[in-house]
Write a structure and sequence with these properties.
- By secondary structure, the chain is of the alpha/beta class.
- It has 15 helices and nine strands.
- The strands form three sheets. The protein has a five-stranded parallel β-sheet. A two-stranded antiparallel ribbon has the order 3-4. A two-stranded antiparallel ribbon has the order 6-7.
- The chain is globular.
- It binds adenosine-5'-triphosphate and magnesium ion.
- Adenosine-5'-triphosphate binds next to α2 and α10.
């Protein structure tokens, strides 16, 4: 576990923008301190890479680097994964199990998507941090102590979550001693060419040292103008496609087309939301799905809202592509099969000709 060769190292932080330079500077300053840190930024922007770089430059390198995604697990499971349990602590707990907090002892615990952690678990985490890493695994009377450096990452605006009562203010201040913010890629297009250079080399090695041809300056210039909603992860995917398929211009055309459609959809969704007073559609104020009725739940209302937006977006893209499902699935970035399933599930019907 403590063998450095077994710890997967992340890539260096590539980029020349002011934001990335500041991030690199912060990493240099913070890595030696072990101060609780939160990395903020949109999805795919590089939050995990920052956490890996903090770890690599810290005296804890070579010790465990453990990551847990707080959004991926239901509350009870997340608690047992984080803090561990004794045998018999709950049905199914046949063996005693150490939690990630303890497994990360002397190393780093990355709490990914911390903004999605439930309030009761936030309270427990706060208690652990306040006590200097002491806690009892589930079903145990004994306290264990772990010297774990907690780095959190989130794409939420935690201040707004605090105002909405979804995130504890005391935990925010306890975790957020150091704040590292990664700007979206569209706000730092100057990072795109160096990222392309870096990943062309990486992928050439990955694909058996094939000498992959870097996109032309013209293509790179166009790439700098795209908005990259999926940030560096999207850039990586597009680049892989370009390197393997070669048809850079067509790939870019598709990207810009999907951008245009999304922009139209955003406009259409905004106006339709306000026109149709969509809340009353989602929450039937008089009926079974009214907040006063027994069967009402936020989950059902949310599901309905998502379905409504999905139906509108998919219908719009199908209309724009003249019901060419293959083209539509590419624009929507879902598989052809998923699109067919959604058309049937959401009951979307082609217009009568
Ligand atoms: N500045 C960068 N230099 C090199 N690679 C980067 C950089 N930023 C991101 N990447 C790469 O982009 C991909 C996505 O980054 P990462 O997983 O760190 O994003 P994230 O913010 O944690 O995303 P999510 O919110 O989806 O968890 C990774 O493969 C990562 O190595
Ligand atoms: Mg991540």
């Amino acid at each position: 576990m403590n063998d450095p060769s077994k710890t997967k190292l992340g890539p260096p932080i590539v980029g020349v923008s002011k934001n990335i330079e500041r991030v690199r500077e912060l990493i240099e300053h913070v890595a030696g301190t072990g101060l609780n840190t939160v990395v903020f930024g949109e999805s795919g922007v590089g939050k995990e890479v920052v956490a890996q770089n903090l770890y690599q430059k810290s005296p804890r390198v070579g010790k465990p680097f453990i990551k847990i995604n707080c959004a991926a697990l239901p509350e009870g499971l997340l608690e047992s994964e984080l803090f561990g349990y004794e045998r018999g602590a709950f049905t199914g707990a046949e063996q005693k199990k150490k939690g990630k907090f303890q497994l990360a002892h002397s190393g780093v615990l990355l709490l990914d998507e911390i903004g999605d952690m439930s309030l009761p678990l936030q309270a427990k985490l706060l208690h652990v941090l306040q006590s200097g890493g002491e806690f009892s695994p589930l079903g145990s009377e004994k306290e264990v102590k772990a010297d774990t450096w907690v780095i959190a990452a989130t794409n939420h605006d935690l201040k707004r979550d605090i105002e909405a009562g979804k995130f504890r203010e005391d935990l925010y201040y306890r975790l957020n001693i150091i704040k590292i913010y990664l700007a979206p890629l569209r706000e730092r297009p100057e990072d795109i060419p160096p990222l392309i250079n870096f990943y062309v080399k990486e992928y050439s090695q990955m694909l058996n040292n094939r000498n992959l041809e870097k996109p032309s300056p013209n293509v790179i210039e166009r790439m700098c103008k795209y908005s990259w909603p999926g940030n560096v992860r999207e850039l990586q995917n597009v680049l892989k496609r370009m390197l393997v398929l070669g048809d850079c211009s067509q790939i870019l055309d598709e990207l810009f087309n999907s951008e245009k459609i999304t922009a139209t959809q955003d406009g259409a969704a905004d106006s339709s939301m306000s026109q149709h007073a969509s809340l009353t559609e989602i929450i039937d104020l008089e009926g079974a799905n009214s907040p006063d009725s027994q069967s009402f739940s936020l989950k059902t209302a949310k599901k309905k809202a998502v379905e409504m937006v999905e139906r509108e977006i998919i219908s719009h893209v199908l209309e724009k592509t003249d019901w060419n499902r293959s083209k539509a699935s590419k624009i929507l970035k879902i598989s052809y099969k998923t699109l067919l399933y959604k058309i049937s599930d959401l009951n979307i019907v082609p217009p009568e000709k």
